[in-house]
Each structure stands twice: as C-alpha cells, then as structure tokens.
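so i finally got all the pieces together for this one. its two components total, 426 residues if u count the protein bits. some of the lines might not be protein, just check the labels. i wanna see the whole assembly predicted at once instead of chain by chain like last time, that was a mess tbh
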Amino acid sequence: MNYSKHDIAQLDERFRAQLINSLSGFKSANLIGTKDKDGLENLSIVSSVFHIGSNPPLIGMIIRPHSVPRHTLENIKQTGGYTINHVNREIFTAAHQTSARYEKEQSEFKEVGLTSCYLNNFIAPYVLESKCKMAIELRSLQTLELNQTELVIGEIVDIHLDDKQAVTSDGHIDLNSLDTVALSGLDAYHTAESLGRLKYAKPDQDIEFLDKK
Amino acid sequence: MNYSKHDIAQLDERFRAQLINSLSGFKSANLIGTKDKDGLENLSIVSSVFHIGSNPPLIGMIIRPHSVPRHTLENIKQTGGYTINHVNREIFTAAHQTSARYEKEQSEFKEVGLTSCYLNNFIAPYVLESKCKMAIELRSLQTLELNQTELVIGEIVDIHLDDKQAVTSDGHIDLNSLDTVALSGLDAYHTAESLGRLKYAKPDQDIEFLDKK
C-alpha cells in the first residue's frame, strides 16, 4: 500500500488527519493541568508530550493554537506553570472526554469527573487519579513557522509517583506498574506489554536483555 | 514517592537519565535511514519522533548532536532526505543494536542484520523489514538553546504500508496489525494491546467507544 505526496495532498481532510496522526508510532497520553490568573482550572489531554533532555530535565509538547487545548496555552502564558499527569487505564475515557470543547468557565475536572489537587504549593492543579504526576515550569514558547503550532518547553521541577516500587534500581520507571496507557492516532488507547529491557548496545557485542519477560 | 527539584539535581547522572526519559510516557520507536553524499548508508534508532501536523504532513524528532545519531544528522544536512521506519516486534533487538557507536564507515544495516532498500527513487534507504515506512524531506532544522539539541522537522512525502488492511475506513492505522512496538525510558520495549478507540468528544455527550475490544 503506497500513498505518494500527490495522494496525501488529495486525501479527505479527516482521513488525512487520522492517517498522518498514526504515522509517528505510539504516543504518550498525558493530562495537562493549568489554572488561569483568576484561579479557574483547566484540564486537557495532549498526545504530543515528548522527552527533550535529562540535564536539565526538559519536556516538550506541541499545541495547536485554535484547538481544544487553547485555554491550556493561555493559562501557561499567564502563570508560567503547568502539570503533566500520565493517563492510566482507569481514567482514559474521562481523560479523552477533556478534549470536548467546553466553555472557558467550565472546569474539565468537574465535567469529566476527575479530581484536582495541589501539591508542594505548585501553582497548577494535578490530577489526583494519575499515578505519575509532574510540575513543570515554562522555559520556552515558540511558534513553529511551518504550520503555526506552538512548541512549549518546560523544566520538570517536581515528580510524584504513586508506587515507589515503580522505580527500578537504575532509575527506569516501569510504566506498566503505573497502568500508564499509550495512544495511537487520534483516539486509539492501548495498554502495553513488556518485551523486556535491552542492555546498552556496543559495536562488538551481541544485544542482550537486561531482563527477559 | 516524591522527587523535588533539588532531589532531581542531586541524582546520579545515569539514574537521572533513566528516570527523566521514562517520564514523558510511552514513546515511538523508529529507525532513521540516511545516506551521505558519497552513498554511505546509516541507520539509527530514535525514540523522539513525534507528530506535528497533518496538513502539511509534518513530523519532528530531537537529536542530540554528540550522541550516536550524529551521523544521521550529518547525512540529513547533506542530502535533505531521510526515511522513518516503524520498529516492529520481529526487529526490535536489531533496531536497538543500531544505537551502538559504530564507526562512520560501518553500515548499521550490515552490522545489525537489517536490509536496506530503495523505493520510488527516494534518496535515503528504507528498512525492508519495517512494515510502515515513510520518506521525509527536511523542512526545518534548529538548535534548541535550552540544551543544544537539534529539532529536525520534515514533511512526509511517501508512505509505504505492508498491510493494506492496517488502514481502517476512516484513515486510522492499526499499529498492532503492523506489530509496531513502543518504547519507554531508554531501553524498554513493549507491544500494545488495544483498549479500544473512542469517539470524538462533545461537551454534552457521554464518551463512547468506536469499537470495543
């Protein structure tokens, strides 16, 4: 099955959105918690959160300015802080529901049945039901000229994990033990099953498993 | 379990790399195929490929300039083209092995036992064993000032899928049918199990499954 550049350009807009969104592979599923300067809370699901670096600990996300997370972007600009909360198996339908176009005055927490909570005096609300939550301070905001989306980069300044056992002795987090889900395309949710961890690869050595499941 | 900003700064470098790399959630696993101006092929696994937009079809990735994919970056600068190939269950150990620090003269294709192939006269090599392959033309390259990593953005100009059935009637690609794997952290590979697809969310409507697995 082949789609040429010409084929892609000719596709129906919705079909293309589904197809192209599926092509990057599996994606993270995160809820972004924010509050505006008047204290109004907002929550939106984002599938574009990605790792940028460990030292300093930087994490990025792409937000389309006219899409549902626009209130999220406005709030981040106002307060400089937001939370990232892993979506897990118990809350993925509620998480997806945050993508509905609620009015600015409506709190998605209340509308979808998730609980906001505040930790260590951070300005933005966390999702209580999430088992992996982070506080993020905005470090950089830029408009990508190619398609006018916003690249938001922040620094991870606080990490909360429900299960201490989820962190292995070398620092790796076992996302399965936190029930974290993966997204594909616009709307397909998945749990993951481990194939195992692989050792650091070296040119003169065959690949080995750190553990074998 | 809580890691404060202070705790994060104090962590051992390798522990922090494992921890922070795990925090964004599940990641895509892709092989990037390139060729330099003299025809020398290169292949490297990248976990930072992410969706940027559907129209035009844009896809991004983060590359650390001094890391193993540095040859990839050099080749992309030289030729302006690269391929993205989904890592699947049959090839994930070989894919991981491309992260070893081979010399510039060594082809990772040969070293790890994957097969390069050329399709529709595109300049960069594909991975024959991958079931979802794309040709990408470089559109933008920038250094992120916060940590000197490179943000590479390209346009998807050709798509090859092994299984026609993988594309559903609305354009969504069933990644499970292509055996595409997900990554977490630096080295943990996973297959995915579908929880189902959810309908487009509306404020006044309960969430519904498009399909229920």
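The helical segments of chain A are 5-10, 13-23, 70-79, 92-97, 108-112.
Chain A has five helices and 14 strands.
anyway lmk what u think
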